[in-house]
Specification:
With 219 residues, this protein is α/β, with parallel strands linked by helices. It has ten helices and four strands; from the N terminus they run βαβαβαβααααααα. A four-stranded parallel β-sheet has the order 2-1-3-4, sandwiched between helices. The longest helix is centred in the N-terminal third of the chain and has 17 residues. The radius of gyration is 18 Å and the shape is globular.
C-alpha cells in the first residue's frame, strides 16, 4: 500500500514522518505533504483560484480530483490511498466530516480516501503519550500533564506549552504565531520518536492508526 498523507502544517508533517513509519514499518510506502494552514472548504466545492497559497482545505477539491485521476492510471496491483489529517479546532465533527465526504463524492474517478481528524489539535496526539512528553522534556510540569484529558477541547497546544515551554503558552504567544509554529515543530521532532503508537491514549490518534493498519492489511 502507498499512502499519500495531507497535513495542514509543518509540525504535523514532522510528527507523521516519524509516526507513520512506526505504524506500517518498511513494507509500505508513504509521503507526507504539509500545507500552510487548514483554511476553509471553498463555497460550492469549487476549486480555489489561487492554489499557490497552499491552504489545505481550499485546495482539497482540486487535490482529490487530481489523486482520483492519478490513482485511476495505476496498475491494478498497485494500491494507493489519500489520508487527510487536520485539526478539528472548534468545528462540529459530524458536519465537518459531511463536508469532506461531499468533496470526495464530487470526484470522478474517486480516489480511495480516509479522513482522520485530530481532536482538538494535532498536539493531542503528542499528549496521548505523556511518558513520551516526559522523556523529551524531563523538566516538563507534571501537574499540567496530569490534568490533561485526552482529546478534550481545552486549548491543546497551549496545554502542551504550559507543560514544556519556559514561561508557558502566554509567553510563547507573545512571541507571535511564527514562533508558535516553530515551537510546535520542535515538539513534534522531540516527542514523536518516544511515542508508543500502540499505547497512545488519544482516541483520534488510534482512529488514524487503525485506518492505516486496516488499509495495510495488518488489522
Amino acid at each position: 500500500m502507498h499512502f499519500e498523507i495531507l497535513v495542514e502544517d509543518l509540525s504535523g508533517k514532522k510528527a507523521l514522518d516519524i509516526l507513520v513509519h512506526k505504524i506500517v514499518g518498511d513494507e509500505h510506502t508513504y509521503q507526507v505533504h504539509s500545507y500552510k494552514g487548514v483554511g476553509q472548504i471553498p463555497k460550492n466545492m469549487r476549486d480555489t483560484k489561487d492554489a499557490s497559497k497552499r491552504i489545505l482545505l481550499q485546495n482539497l477539491p482540486k487535490l482529490l480530483k487530481g489523486y482520483g485521476g492519478t490513482f485511476d492510471g495505476y496498475p491494478s496491483d498497485y494500491a494507493a490511498v489519500v489520508i487527510l489529517v487536520c485539526d478539528l479546532d472548534d468545528k462540529c465533527l459530524k458536519n465537518f466530516r459531511a463536508e469532506l465526504f461531499s468533496i470526495l463524492d464530487n470526484c470522478n474517478p474517486k480516489p480511495e480516501t480516509r479522513f482522520c481528524i485530530a481532536i482538538e489539535e494535532g498536539e493531542a496526539w503528542l499528549l496521548g503519550d505523556l511518558e513520551a512528553v516526559r522523556k523529551a522534556y524531563p523538566k516538563s510540569k507534571n501537574a499540567v500533564l496530569n490534568e490533561y484529558k485526552n482529546d478534550s477541547i481545552c486549548g491543546t497546544w497551549e496545554k502542551l506549552a504550559d507543560a514544556v515551554y519556559p514561561g508557558g503558552s502566554k509567553k510563547l504567544a507573545k512571541n507571535g504565531w511564527q514562533e508558535v509554529g516553530k515551537e510546535k515543530s520542535k515538539w513534534s521532532e522531540s516527542i514523536s520518536p518516544h511515542i508508543d503508537v500502540e499505547k497512545n491514549k488519544s482516541p483520534s490518534f488510534q482512529y488514524f492508526r487503525g485506518k492505516m493498519l486496516e488499509l495495510a492489511g495488518e488489522y
